[in-house]
Each structure stands twice: as C-alpha cells, then as structure tokens.
Amino acid sequence: MSYDLVLRVGTKLILPFILLFALYVQFHGDYGPGGGFQAGVIAASMVILLAITCGLDLAHRIAPQAMVQRMVPLGVLIYAGTGVAGILMGKNYLDYSVLAQNSASGHELGIFLVEAGVLITVAGTMTSLFYAFVERGR
Amino acid sequence: MNAVWPHLPILQVVIPLFGAVLAGFLRRPGPAFAVALVVSWLMPLIAGAMLWQALATGPISYHIGSWPPPWGIEYRVDVLGGFVLVLVSTVGAVIMPFARRSVAFEVEEAQQPWFYCMYLLCLTGLLGIVATGDAFNAFVFLEVSSLSTYVLVALGRDRRALLAAFQYLIMGTIGATFYIIGVGLLYLLTGTLNMVDMAARLGPEWAGHSRAIVAALAFITVGVSLKLALFPLHAWLPNAYAYAPSWVTAFLAATATKVAIYVLVRFFFSIFGIAIDFRDLPVAEIILALSVAAMFVASLIAVFQTDLKRMLAYSSVAQIGYITLGIGLANQAGLTGGLVHVVNHALMKAALFLAVGAIFFRVRSVQLSDLAGIGRKMPITMTAFTIACLGLVGTPGTSGFISKWYLATGAFDKGWWLLVFLIVGSSLIALVYVGRVLEVVWLREPSAALENASDPPLSMLLPLVVLAAATVYFGFETQWTAGIAGTAAKDLIGGLR
C-alpha cells in the first residue's frame, strides 16, 4: 500500500509543531485557556495523524501499544500520588501547600503535577481508543 | 496509628483507586487479583473504624486539600454513612476469594487484569458516594462507579452482555443526568454544593420559593430511582444482572443499588426533609405505591422465569420495593426496616448469586430445566442457597424476617392495616418462586448431564457459606443490623420538619 507523498512529507514537517503546541497549551494553562485535557488531546492527535497518513506500524514505533496502555493508569497515579504526598507530609489529602517552601509555590507545583497526570492519562486514553478502533479489522 | 486515624475517610476512597491503577499496571491476572484481594480486605477495617468513631463521637469530617467547607470538598461520615460503608466493603471482602476461579472461568484471560481494575474502580466510586459530603463530588463518584459497572457487565462471555451493558449505559446516563440537573437547581437556590451547608441554607425562608426545590426534588428522585431500579424504572436491571459475569452480579446486587438507596435517603431526609414539608407533597405516597407495585409485579414476573439468574434479578427488583417501602413510611420502625433490609437483602442476594455462580462453574448452565436434582450433587452449595431463599421469603429465624417485622411494625404504627397484609401477601408470592426452584433442585432425580457436578472448591464455597450463615445469624442477633439502623433512622427522622 502506498501513501501520498505530499501528505507524508507534510505530516512529518508538522508533527514536532503539534507536540510543541500541546506542550504550550499544557504550560500556558496557568495563565490562559488550556490545560492537561486539551494538551493531551492535541498530543494524541499527533499520533493519530501519523497513523492515518503514514500507516499504523510507524505510529506503533513512536507510541507502542504497551506504553500507551500503561500511560492511562500512570497519569492517575501521578494525580493521586500528588494528593497522597499531602498526607505523608502531615497535612490533608491534595493539600499542595506542603510541596514547596511557601504555600503559593507549593500550590503551583501541585497543580503542575496534577496537570501533568491529566496530560498523560488523556493522551494515553485517546491513543488507545484510536488503536482499539483501527485494529478491529486487522 | 494516630497519624492514619484522621485520614480514614479519604483512605477509604484512595486505597481502592491506587489498587485499580496498580491492577492496570500489572496486566497479569494473578497479581491483579492479589491487589484486589488485599484492598478488599483492608476496606472493612477502615469502614468499621469510622462507623465506630461515628457511633462514639458523632460525624467525622475531612477537608480535602485543607479547604474548609463549604468552599472545599468535605468528606463526611455519619452513622448512616458508616453503616453503608461497612456493608459495601464487607460484601466486597467476603466475596472476593470467590472471584479468582469464577472470573478465570467466565472472563477471557487477557481481560482479567482489567476486570480487577474495573472492580476496584467501581469500589472506589461506591465508597466515594457514601463518604463524600458534597453533592457534586457524589455525582462524580456515581459516574466512576457506573462507568466501571458498564464495563464489568459487558465482560460477560455471552454476546448479549454487550447489549445489556449498552441498555444499562443509556438508562444509567439518563439517571445521572437527572441527578445532576437536580443538584444544579439546588446550587442555583443555595449557592453551595456541600450537603450540610445546603440543608442549613434551605431553611424556612425558602418556603415561598419552593417550586424550584420541588423541581430539584423531582429530578433527583427520578434520577436516583433509575439507579436503584425502583419499579417501573427497573428495565435495565434484569438483563444487566442476567448476562454479567456471575461474580459481578453478586457484587452489584449487594452494593450498587444499595448505595443508590443511600443517596435517596440522604437527599430525602438530610436535605429536602429539612427544606420543605413532605406532608404537602405526594412524594411518600408515590414511593409507597411504586414500592407495593414492585413487590407484587416483579415477584409475579419472577415466578415465570426459566433462567435462575433472571429470576433472582426480578426478585431483586421486588426486594428493593421493600426497602423503598421503608423510606416511604418515613417513621422510626419503617425506616429502620428499610435500612435493615439494605443489609439483609445485600447478604442474601450475594449468597444467592454466588450459588448461581458456583452452579454455572460446574454445570455451565443456570436454566432451571438443567438443574433438576442438583441439590444431591452440590449439597453444601444448595443448602446455602436454600437458606438464603428462605431469607428472601422472610421465614422466622432468618434476617429477612427481621426486616419485614420492622416494616410491618412501621405500617402498623401508621394504622395502615392493608399495607401489613400486602407485605405478608407479597412474601407468599416470593414463596411461590422460591418454592418452584427448591422443588426442582431437591425433589427431582439428577439427570445424566449432572453426573460430574460436585461442590465447588473451598475458595468459592467459603464465601457462600459465610453469607448464608450471616443470613441466619442476623435473624437472631439484631444488635449490629437493626440496632445501628435504628440509630441512623433516629438521626434522619430527627432532622425532618
């Protein structure tokens, strides 16, 4: 099966920028619209675009099935683990103020970690949903 | 120990969540089962400690993220909450050893780790609904438990399980949507999502604005009634129970509908009961009428079922009718009876569905026609089954009698003689469908197909025997069930206007 040359080259050119945009949305979530969920969807769309234009095998090489399936619980683990850190440091669950020297930067770090967890879970879930659908016919 | 003590409400929810994540990571059936077993056995200890604390010193409050309520999410465990938490976690702990072989037999190997992952997520959601004191947080946990339940139902080997799960998904989503619309209306009125704060703000000054409260009440009642399968909103239940893996049916029948009943009681007595005078609204009458209809119609449908699992599913709808009857009566004895039946029915239905799982494990069929004389081949299993059946009917000496005694007393206190007769009459229909099964099981000659059938291995037999023994034990010793339910009922009714 052959793929259209323009699409393939164009896709490969645009891929890094999609990932960069995902990270921008992720980190700019503090100040503007965005956050882990949107960034996760954008990151997953990169893998999906690659699979559509260049074939599933190439997509599996950059995002193997096993890795994607483990990303789903990993993100939840990071989120819940951030919460448990509060208990271990002697405060309540999800109390971010213990994570750094002062309360404000503790909250910033807490939100950062939680959003990272969301990014990983959403990207993993979106990609495995896509894999689950396209592999049905194989 | 002192360091852990104040964090019990959140640990109750977070430990199964971590267990689910871990089971998802391990991706092998054996280790995933081990995680599920350890978590399930840990849960009753936490729940028991909290119930003990709530009985001794009053409600426990926990502030997530140290944000004080009503701004932050508060976890709140009172006597009723502790009671339901102990029930859900204990049922999970008792029936967990059964899962190993039953699930290995009924679920494909590649899906088994995900099965345990989904079970632990479901447990997270169910325990979370009860532990939280925040109406929106309860919705989130409602969805967590429901979504994982749809997956668990769909994992049944029969392809009809997919359709049953889809049907349940549609109905469950409608229920959850109705619930969240109701909560939205309450938020509009009070500006808070914290249940205690909501109740405090819905004081007498809201009497003039009661139309929105009534709308919220209607939405929440219908939404939660869908989840708890109150007749005639039960259409999803028979298929979901019949086609889910046997162990899932036992777990769901004992926990999922019971937690939905907790939500209904919580909203009726702790939030709406404080805001509006129920005597002006026909809510209790509607609930009573539907409960009586459930007791009779669902029992009659159960009489004509040929599939044992389906028959017990219809019997569940009927038994839920008894519980909501207690809620509708809304007096001390009636509500105690309803709450006691939550526990008693959970224990006997878990025993019955486990017995059905054990039969399927040996015979590969639960059609009544294939089970002639199975009592002689699987004596211990079928004895436990028979004891739980007698509990369903309400025979004196079983826990079912205690529930019905309290319900009848509740009806009697109101002077509703007819209702007392209806309770007794519906038990007679239960006797018919139970008797039909027991006749086939015990009094007929075993067929050739049952040649190799025998009692299942100990890991499956033990949970079954424990649950059947509990059915008898709680028929005599009622301090733990009726005693605590009575305390909870007193707290709830004391708050009513």
Would you kindly provide a written description of the structure presented here, covering whatever features stand out?
The complex is a heterodimer of chains A (138) and B (497). Chain A has helices spanning 5-28, 36-54, 56-62, 65-88, 103-134. Chain A has 138 residues and is mainly α. The longest helix of chain A is centred in the last third of the chain and has 32 residues, at 103-134. With 497 residues, chain B is mostly helical. Chain B has a domain at 282-497. Chain B is built from 19 helices and two strands. In chain B, strands 1-2 form a two-stranded antiparallel sheet. The radius of gyration of chain B is 21 Å and the shape is globular. Chain B starts with 7 loop residues before the first helix and ends with a helix. The mean pLDDT of chain B is 89. Chain A binds chain B through residues 69-70, 72-74, 76-77, 80, 83-84, 86-87, 90-97, and chain B through 3, 7, 10, 14, 17-18, 20-22, 24-25, 27, 62-66, 117.
In short:
The complex is a heterodimer of chains A (138) and B (497). By secondary structure, chain A is mostly helical. Chain A has helices spanning 5-28, 36-54, 56-62, 65-88, 103-134.
Provide tags for this entry.
heterodimer, A: 138 residues, mainly alpha, B: 497 residues, 19 helices, 77% helix
